[in-house]
Amino acid sequence: MVKRHAEMVRAIHLNAYHHDNGVAAAQRNRLGYKRMILRTGILFLLAFSPSWLSAAENVLVFGGGTLSCGKWLESRNDLATYYQLRQWVFGFVSGTNYSAPRKQSNPPDSEAGVAFIDQYCKNNPLHLLVLAAAALVQETGGPNAEHQWKR
User: Which of 25, 107, 115, 149 could bond to 140 as cystine, CB 3.0-4.6 Å?
Assistant: First the structure.
């Protein structure tokens, strides 16, 4: 009976040991998974970071400005996208005016601004939309765009 009791106690301890190792293994797997997600995220950010930065400066750009001028020209086939990109450009001009009150961009009207972006993008289809918007700001009295483009 004592021998049987000792075997049962030993079996309980072994089960607890294996259970603890199972929990520890699960925790290690979750940690490995989290590390893999983190590494993948970092690689993703590094791979796509050039689309976030303007060519002129190290400026973080969000939204429609990260699309190419080619996409701007294609957006005429999708009016919802086109109007979103237009509004992004107008927001960029307004934001630039807000940040540089002494040197305001003042396009004659919204259609003149759009016509400028259209021409810029036809001449520079690989540039990002943010660069076209920066050129619009410069050409209508705002701060210099600090990049070269084909006129």
Answer: 107
Residue 51 has pLDDT above 50, yes or no: no
Same-domain pairing of 61 and 33 = no
d(CA 127, CA 45): 20
**Domain shared by 123 and 110, yes or no:** yes
Task: Give Cα 14 to chain centroid, integer Å.
Answer: 51
* Domain count within the chain: 2
The conformational region for residue 146 under phi > 0 = left, psi -120 to 50 = alpha, else beta, is left
pTM of the full predicted structure?
Answer: 0.61
d(Cα 129, Cα 88) in Å, to the nearest integer?
9
**pLDDT greater than 50 at residue 55:** no
